[in-house]
Design goal:
The chain is of the alpha+beta class. The chain has five helices and three strands, in the order ααβααββα.
Length: 92
C-alpha cells in the first residue's frame, strides 16, 4: 500500500468531493478491469471534454491510471491508493 502524504490526502479529498468524479470512481470500482473513456462518457451523458477534465483531476490525485492507446484511453481505479486513502481517513 502506498504511503500518502498530507498533500496527497488533500488532493484526493478535493478530487472526490466533486459528485461526478465520485460517481466515476464508483463506476470504475464496479467494472471488471479497465473501462474505456467512451464507456464513461456514455454512462454519464456529458461531453468528452467534461469527462476528460474529471479524469485528469482523478489522475492527478493518483486515483486512476489511464493507459493511452492512440486517441483512446483505458481507465482503471488505483485500488491501492484508494485503500491507503480510506485507511488514513479511518485514523481521524
Amino acid at each position: 500500500m502506498p504511503r500518502l502524504t498530507e498533500k496527497d490526502i488533500e488532493r484526493i479529498s478535493a478530487a472526490v468531493a466533486e459528485p461526478r468524479r465520485f460517481k466515476i470512481l464508483k463506476d470504475l470500482a464496479a467494472w471488471p478491469g479497465t473501462m474505456s473513456c467512451s464507456t464513461i462518457i456514455d454512462k454519464h451523458g456529458v461531453s468528452a471534454a467534461t469527462i476528460s477534465h474529471h479524469l485528469k483531476e482523478l489522475e492527478e490525485a493518483g486515483l486512476v491510471e489511464i493507459a493511452r492507446e492512440g486517441k483512446f484511453g483505458l481507465v482503471s481505479l488505483r485500488r491501492d491508493v484508494w485503500s491507503a486513502y480510506v485507511a488514513r481517513l479511518s485514523e481521524l
